[in-house]
Design goal:
Layout: H1 6-24, E1 26-27, H2 30-36, H3 38-44, H4 67-74, H5 79-90, H6 92-104, H7 112-124, H8 127-132, H9 139-155, H10 162-178, H11 186-196, H12 201-235, H13 244-247, H14 269-276, H15 294-311, H16 323-346, H17 354-368, H18 374-395, E2 402-403, E3 411-413, H19 416-420, E4 424-428, E5 445-450, H20 463-469, E6 475-480, H21 491-501, E7 506-508, E8 514-521, H22 529-534, E9 536-548, H23 551-574, E10 587-589, E11 592-596, E12 603-606, E13 610-614, E14 621-626, H24 627-632, H25 640-643
Parallel strand pairs: 4-5, 4-6
Antiparallel strand pairs: 1-2, 3-8, 6-9, 7-9, 8-9, 10-11, 11-12, 12-13, 13-14
Helix pairs in contact: 1-5, 1-6, 6-7, 6-9, 6-17, 7-17, 9-10, 9-11, 10-12, 11-12, 11-16, 15-17, 15-18, 16-17
């Protein structure tokens, strides 16, 4: 019997991973700028009670998995080396996919070696895998743990005992503890264990599942226990700000936060999602363009296999006599199906299901080799592979923000005064840009008042926010803006910022502003000066002094906002599915008012006369009607889902 060794296969895919990492470029993605770099800084410097929502909601997610990345960047390791280390860690996924494929592809299959390489290569070509390979997200790291647990499950199919179930639970629990989105995979493992225990009876199954649950709890506590304790002690919620409808921390809305931007109201849309994943546009199931024909190819192959079993009395092929291989195949399908349903109902954000997209490669090959209608099966496999390569070519670089490697991972320019002296900074923006915070004086403090979560203003302002503003440190505002030659933002920008600050009792002071920036060169720039100038990115932040006790402006702003709140609150009652959670803080600006909904990612906006809504991932607004009509007349909630 020929052995197909793991190590040479992993080496090959590790080299391929590092090569892709270098080719695709450094990924300065939204989450890295928002919290990947700040979160470990917050953790290592014990800033939970110093800063307040400095990285918005995500700043309170478990930072432990980002500590090695932060350390490598801070000590000045070359970014190519950092990317290479990340790519090598991520390539462990392909080692476990190889092992899983060996369980799914029968040993007597004559082209087993080719099938193994093809299965893992199809996984490598998953668009979201290529997006994150060698980048900063935790998903490719936690997926290693998920695939490890799955390998243990199918390696011992029909032989799952309590000790193995406990081990599976420990590994899966650690994945969930490192990144909470992996909680979605836990029901799939529980059902997989129930199916895979073999003929040991109901009592044996119950003991195995209990052992799995104990393992999950232990693994979760190892990865998240300390952070849960810190959040519970300082914020009153062990997974703050999630599940705050249960824990009722005074520092967040008493609603359960859940990002549902890709979930629509039609329950059956989960069945059509593989077709939707063919779309060459962002927001189909991911923030970037990640068209992926493989899930649809797998569905087609499974339908053909089912039809063959229905129409043929002989079963699939001679390989079906290998009960162990087919048991592993069926168990993997059960796991993938349960995981898919849990993910589809709870999130539908593609990167949260990375293990699922990686599994598509082995599953489609394992399905095809079980179809005895060889020509049809080969057409399905070849068409899927061809379309995958074609789509990757037309998708373009899948990185969220592809940058040249340069000398440092992150280029931040901060004025010397802000490095040497501490201030209390109020930051403004949906993207918090908290990656710049470690470059400031370590005794400085930061609070994001206008971002993904709007801080309550007026009488509803939290105690922590009041205490922050009462700090002995001089106050400054940080907001995205260039400066004019006189050292000030433009007049319109100052008016806009002052309108936003007024409900919090703040306004820009008379002193001049300073400028900080994040700079990088987009990948693909030629050596031509014009090309490099065109692809040079510079995010500039005006840092301006602010003053308090502007009572007149604050009273006026709160009165005007109360009138707008009545309109927004009425729309929330009429359209609860579109605007959730309810009762969030309204933001004022120079051109009107806006309320951003963290669960649906929709935005209500008005200039005081007309009310409009901007649907998540859309760049256009839908007019709902006039303020007077919404207040005084009968209003019908629009079916925005069908429009977008």
């Amino acid at each position: 019997m020929r052995r197909y060794k793991l190590f040479p296969a992993w080496i090959a895919f590790a080299i391929l991973s590092v090569g892709w990492m270098y080719f695709a470029g450094k990924d300065l993605n939204w989450d890295f700028i928002n919290y990947h770099f700040y979160a470990p800084y917050e953790f290592l410097n014990q800033r939970l009670e110093i800063d307040y929502f400095a990285a918005s909601i995500q700043g309170y997610l478990n930072p432990i998995g980002f500590v090695p990345l932060y350390a490598l960047i801070k000590i000045g390791v070359n970014p190519i080396v950092i990317g290479g280390i990340l790519a090598l860690i991520h390539s462990l996924n392909f080692a476990f996919l190889w092992l899983i494929s060996r369980q799914l592809i029968p040993e007597k299959y004559p082209h087993r070696s080719l099938a193994l390489w093809g299965a893992v290569l199809l996984s490598f070509l998953a668009p979201l895998q290529l997006t994150m390979l060698g980048g900063t997200p935790l998903d490719p790291i936690t997926s290693v743990l998920v695939l490890m647990a799955l390998y243990i499950l199918i390696r011992h199919v029909d032989e799952i005992n309590p000790s193995r179930a406990f081990l599976i639970g420990c590994v899966a629990g650690m994945a969930a503890g490192l990144k909470l989105t992996n909680l979605l995979v836990l029901p799939a493992f529980a059902i997989g264990i129930a199916v895979g225990v073999g003929a040991i009876g109901i009592r044996g199954m119950a003991i195995a599942i209990l052992a799995y649950c104990v393992g999950v709890a232990l693994g979760f506590m190892v990865a998240h226990g300390y952070w849960s304790f810190e959040l519970w002690r300082k914020m009153g919620n062990p997974i703050f700000p999630l599940m705050n409808g249960v824990f009722n921390s005074p520092d967040f809305s008493t609603a359960n936060f859940q990002d549902r931007r890709y979930i629509d109201s039609q329950w059956w849309s989960i069945l059509t999602l593989p077709v939707k994943m063919l779309s060459h546009r962002s927001a189909a199931y991911a923030e970037n363009i990640a068209a992926d024909p493989r899930p649809l190819g797998l569905c087609v192959a499974l339908i053909i296999l089912w039809l063959q079993r229905v129409l043929s009395r002989e079963g699939a092929t001679q390989y079906s006599i290998e009960n162990r291989g087919n048991s592993a195949f069926r168990l993997t399908l059960v796991f993938a199906g349960v995981f898919y349903v849990a993910w589809g109902e709870a999130s539908r954000i593609g990167r949260y299901a990375l293990p699922l997209w990686l599994l598509v490669g082995p599953l489609i090959v394992a399905t095809v080799i079980r179809i005895k209608w060889r020509r049809i099966s080969l057409v399905v496999l070849c068409a899927t592979a061809f379309l995958q390569v074609l789509f990757l070519h037309t998708n373009g670089n899948p990185r969220w923000t592809a940058a040249e490697w340069g000398d440092r991972w992150l280029e931040v320019n901060v004025p010397n005064d802000l490095k040497e002296n501490p201030y209390a900074y109020v930051t403004m923006g949906t993207l918090s840009y908290s990656a710049i915070i470690p470059s400031f004086n370590e005794k400085s403090r930061f609070a994001n008042i206008v971002g993904q979560y709007m801080q309550p203003a007026g009488a509803n302002m939290t105690k922590r926010m009041r205490d922050f503003l009462a700090s002995d440190l001089p106050l400054k505002a940080i907001f995205s803006s260039a400066l004019q030659e006189d050292g000030y933002p433009s007049t319109s920008r100052r008016m806009d910022v002052n309108a936003t600050l007024a409900p919090y009792g703040l306004r820009l002071a008379a002193g001049k502003c300073e400028l900080a920036a994040i700079e990088f060169q987009r990948i693909g720039s030629s050596s031509e000066p014009e090309s490099r100038a065109r692809n040079h990115v510079k995010h500039e932040f005006a840092i301006c002094p602010i003053e308090q006790n502007v009572e007149k402006e604050t009273r006026q702003a709160l009165v005007e906002m109360a009138a707008i709140d009545m309109v927004f609150d009425r729309l929330e009652r009429l359209c609860p599915a579109l605007f959730a959670p309810h009762g969030l803080q309204t933001m004022a600006g120079g051109r009107g008012w806006m309320r951003r909904y963290s669960n649906t990612n929709n935005q209500l906006m008005t200039d005081g006369a007309i009310v409009a809504v901007r649907v998540a991932e859309s760049y256009s607004d839908v007019i709902l009607g006039s303020v007077e009509d919404i207040q005084m007349h009968e209003f019908k909630c629009p079916s925005l889902v069908s429009q977008f």
